[in-house]
Each structure stands twice: as C-alpha cells, then as structure tokens.
Amino acid sequence: MDSNVAPLHVENVSKNFGGLQALLGVNLTLQEGERRAIIGPNGAGKTTFFHLISGVLTPSSGHIHLFGQEVTSKPPYRRAALGLARTFQINNLFPNLSVLDNIVLSVQALEKTKFSMFKPMTSYRHVYLRAEELMEQWGLADKGNTTVRNLSYGDQRELEVVMALAQEPKLLLLDEPTGGLSPAETATVTAMLSQLPRHITVLLIEHDMDVAFTMADRVTVFYMGEVLAEGTPQEVRENPKVQEIYLGSPI
Amino acid sequence: MRRSFLPIILVIAGLAILAILPKVLTSYYVGLLVTVLIFGIFALSLDLLLGHCGLPSLGHAASFGTAAYVAGFLSLKIANNAPVNFAAALFAGGAVAAIFGLLALRTRGIYFLMITLALSQVLWGLAFKWKSATGGDDGMPGIPRPNLSMLGLDLTPVNSYYYFTLALFVLVCILMYILIRSPFGHSLRGIRESESRMLALGYNVWAHQYVAFIIAGLFAALAGILYVYYNNMVSPKDLHLITSAKVLLMVILGGTGTFLGPILGATLIVLLENIVSGFTERWLLILGIIYVLVIMLAPKGLLGPLRGRLRRWIPM
Predict the structure, then answer these.
(1) Which pLDDT value is given to residue A250?
(2) How far apart are CA B156 and CA A242, in angstroms?
(3) Which of residues 131-150 of A touch B (CB under 8 A)?
(4) Cβ–Cβ of B202/A111 closer than 8 Å?
(5) Domains of chain A in sequence order
(6) Cβ–Cβ contacts within 10 Å for residue B98, how many?
C-alpha cells in the first residue's frame, strides 16, 4: 500500500468539542514533495485539522500516519522527531529572547545534547553556525541580537517560518504564513516559500487565494468540517460548489 | 562580543568582602550573614522555577522544611553523622519535589500556585500533628551542628559555620550558573516563553520542567539543611506557607531570572526582618511599603532595570 510511505496520511478523522462537530470524516494523503493548500471559510476546521496533525489535539476518531507511522495519539514532540514542523496562525515565538536564541532553540531541538546541563550552550558552535546560516539565508542576519518582541510584525511572521525550517523538516505545516501581512510583505514570504527545496512536503492553510493557487500543486477545500472538494488549482477554481460557498457567485 | 573582566573583578571583590566580614563584625551580624547566605541559596533555587521556567511555586518550603526535619531528626535522635544525614536530607527534599512535581506539573499559572501551596501545607499539617516524630508545634530543639571532626572542622563557632555556609553558597552559585548557561537552561527559558512552540519544535516540555522542579527541590533542601543546623532547631513554620511566601517575595523583590536579584532580595528581607524588627514589631508594615514601592517603581524587581546590561553575562 503506497500510503504507507506518504509523508501524511489522514484517515477518516473526526473531532468534536462537546456538541460542536469541528471535523467530520476527513481523509487526506500527501505525496512526497507535494505542495498542498487547504482553503475554506472561517470556522471550516482548518486550524483544528493542523492541531490534530501536529498533536496539539487528538482526534475523536480516525487515524493519522506520518511517514508510515501511526501517530494519532502521540505527543507533538514525538511527531517533530519524525520530521514534522509547523508554524502557527498567531505568532508563537519566544518574545523575550533574541532572534538568534529563538533560532538556536529550533536548531537544538533535535540534537541529542539538548538535555546537557554542564557545558555552556555557546560551546555548541555548530548549532550557532547553523542558526547564523539560516539568518543569513532568510534575511534576518542583522537582527540576531534584537529581542523578538521588538521585531516588526512582518519580521516576526518570517521568523515564524524560519523557526520551522530550522528543524530541517520533511513535512512542513504552514498556518496562514501571510496572515496580517501587507502586500509587499506577502510577496516576500511567498518568494521565501517558493524557494523551499522540493524534498520538503508542504501543507499550507491560506486565506490569500493568489498565494494558495500559485504555491499549491493541489488544493483541498474545507467547508463545515468536511472536505468539499480536492484537485488542482484549476479544478478547484472551476468547481461550481466551491465558487458558490467560498468564492461567491460565479462571475 | 567584547570580553570584559569587570564581572570577574566584581565577583572576586564580592567574595573577598564576604570572606573578611566575620573578622570585623560581631557574632550577631555574622549570624545574620549566615541566614542571608542560606536564604540566598533558597531564593536561587526558587528562581530556577520562577525566573527560568515561569513556574510560580508557592510551596517551595516543602523541600526546604522536609530536608530540615530529616536532618534534624537524624542528628538528634539517631546519630550526628554529617555525611549520612546530609545525603538523607537531600534525598528526602528531592523526593518531595519528585512527588509534588508529578502532581503540580499537571497545572499551570494560578492553579500551579494553588496546588503547590496545598501540597506543602499537607506537610506542614503532618509536622504539626505528628508529635511523636516531629515534636509538634514546639518543633525539635537542641539539634547539634554537623559533626565534621573527621575533616578537622568544628562548626560550633558561628564564624566556622559561616565559612562552611559560604563555601556551599559559592558552590550553589557556580552550579546554578553552569545550569542556566547550558542547553538545558536555554530550553527552560524557551519553555517559559512558549510551551506550545517548544512542543512543536520537538522538546519534551514536561520532562524538562520535571527535572528542573527536582533540581530546585534539591537546592532548597540544601538550604533547609544549612538552616536547621544553624538554628539548632526545626519547627513547623519552616514548612509553612509563610516561609514559601517569604522566599517568593525575595525572588520577586530582587528580580526574577536575574541571578543576582534573588540573592539581593534574600539579603534585604533577612536584614529587614532582623534589624527593623529590633526597633518595631511592625516590620511587616515596612516590608509591605517597600514591596509596594518596588512593584510601582520597578515592577521587574530591583535589578529589573539592569536586565539589558546583565544579559551580557547572565542568560535570562
């Protein structure tokens, strides 16, 4: 069965919060290297779906496999160890630490030495070199010593993505990476995302249609907790149901 | 980063002053200094939780008092065998932290505060009621100083006990400094800033917090041991909320996560408590006023305004 090697295989997953049915019988499989966008109106269950994949929440029923391994009820840090990284819809950084320290914590996350209590952090040169390399690569080089809470919102949004990339993920979940950004900043982040190497599989929640349709190989449409449609950007754009509920009446 | 010798010079000067002080002070003040050093260790241990993990424990006296009781009980009722009693008391203090940590770390914020408070009050109740073992409300008086005659040390004079405490205080400072600079210490501050991000990055947040909780308990236990041997007695108040709250105030007053802050806070509160109380019974009123002033003028503690400058030497 080829879904065993799929980076992500979600099987009939449902989630309810008390009486509220947030997700109902969702199936989704990603191929290696695929760029998939999830779109849908507010409250469609997109972020809940991300929380289930990353392990913040556990599904009420159904199964989630990462790289062929069942992770349905595994904690988030175990999933990260399998090669999963995510960003958050609302910036989730370390606001009182410097940009460098933020990235260092990301780089260090999968090092075996992270529990070490004796040698100073700064003696792990390779961690710092890797962090500096990432800052160089993504245009944060001159901001290393800035405390994160003093960064502009756009830079924080960018750091949000760099933190995830620092984990060297095989599967990257991006929760509205351009949310709240100006058109110019959106262009920067979109350019950054399109540069991502193809061995990283990307699952993206996006409200900005242009970003979603340019970035993605395939698009999945969520509506009221269910998958309404799935296909290439072209197919989804032409789907009358999607046009009706999401893009408004056909032009 | 420019290398500066200033902090090294300051540390050496500080140590020199601490070493000379007993020669020029009366034994009453040397005794006060011993108390300052002990509460300095205690406050540093709590700051590992509050300042670096963001865990506000209101039951930190549990490890402190348990270790004090165990050391006192063994020395008084069994044998004054210092190494064994030290080890047993440290173990007891760490074990209390290991058990309470399992329960308390299921909660966060105000709930963490309440559960640590409740758990430590259970031990206070035990010490208060279990008269045959603990002496009840009277506590256990007449506990001898640790017997280190095999090392050629007589800790009975207050000056000797002062140097003994100072040596352990310096050791704790060094260990704590190494710990907060380590990858583990960095991870703790990441957890303080955002648990959900640390989980997503691949850190086992609970394991980090649990280990830190036990380490903090061990350091608090050491303070408790030094405290019981210095005072020659232990009583239920050493396990009480008042003791937990006092050390919490020390940390907040001095500035959480600033390393020097908790030590400064401990110094101020111990001196206030002992010197001001000589003039007026209402020393708590004065402490209250100081506390309100600090909260209004320097809400991040006395060393809060220096954070930016201290950060070059002290990870926070």
Answers:
(1) 52
(2) 85
(3) none
(4) no
(5) 2-245 (3.40.50.300)
(6) 17
What pTM does this model have?
0.91
Q: Distance (Å, rounded) from C-alpha A210 to C-alpha B194?
A: 32
Q: What is the mean pLDDT of residues A94-100?
A: 94
Give the type of residue at B267. T
Q: What is the pLDDT of residues B110-168, one digit of tens each?
A: 999 999 999 999 999 999 999 988 988 889 999 999 888 888 888 888 999 999 999 99
**pLDDT value, residue A2:** 47
Interface contacts (A, B; CB < 8 Å): 98
Q: What is the CA radius of gyration of chain B?
A: 19
Phi, psi of B172 (to 5 degrees): -60, -45
Given a contact cutoff of 8 angstroms between Cβ atoms, the answer to whether A149 and A96 are in contact is yes
Chain A residues inside the 8 Å CB shell of B208 = 115
Interface pTM, i.e. ipTM: 0.90
Beta strand A61-66 with A35-39: parallel, antiparallel or unpaired? unpaired
Q: Are A5 and A67 in contact (CB under 8 A)?
A: yes
Distance (Å, rounded) from C-alpha A243 to C-alpha A238?
A: 7
Q: Are A117 and B179 within 8 A, CB to CB?
A: yes
Contacts of A225 (CB under 8 A, 6+ apart): A21, A22, A23, A24, A26, A44, A45
Kindly state the tokens that stand for A73: 């009820």
Query: In this complex, do A94 and B193 lie within 8 Å of one another by their Cβ atoms?
Result: yes
Q: What is the pLDDT of residues B291-313, one digit of tens each?
A: 899 888 888 888 888 888 888 78
pLDDT, tens digit (0-9, with 9 covering 90-100), for A138-158: 888 899 999 999 999 989 999
Task: Using a CB–CB cutoff of 8 Å, tell me whether B205 touches chain A.
Answer: yes
How many whole angstroms separate alpha carbon B256 and alpha carbon B251? 6
Q: Give the whole-angstrom CA distance, residue A223 versus residue A1.
A: 29
* Positive or negative: CA dihedral A62, A65, A69, A75: negative
Measured in whole angstroms, how far is the alpha carbon of residue B267 from the centre of its chain? 12
Judged by a CB distance cut-off of 8 A, whether residue B201 touches chain A is: yes
In sign, the C-alpha dihedral spanning B88, B165, B186, A115 is negative
Secondary structure string (H, E, C) spanning B227-260: HHHHHCCECHHHHCHHHHHHHHHHHHHHCCCCCH
Question: Cβ separation of B182 and A116 shorter than 8 Å?
Answer: yes
Query: Which pair of tokens denotes residue B228?
Result: 């019981």
Do residue A163 and residue B202 have CB atoms under 8 angstroms apart? Answer: no
Task: Assign domain B6-310 one CATH number from 2.40.30, 1.10.238, 1.25.40, 1.10.3470.
Answer: 1.10.3470
φ and ψ of B136, to 5 deg? 60, -145
CB contact under 8 A, B197 and A88: yes
**Which H helix or E strand runs over A222?**
strand A218-223
Best of B186, B195, B214 to disrupt the A interface (most A CBs within 10 Å) is B186
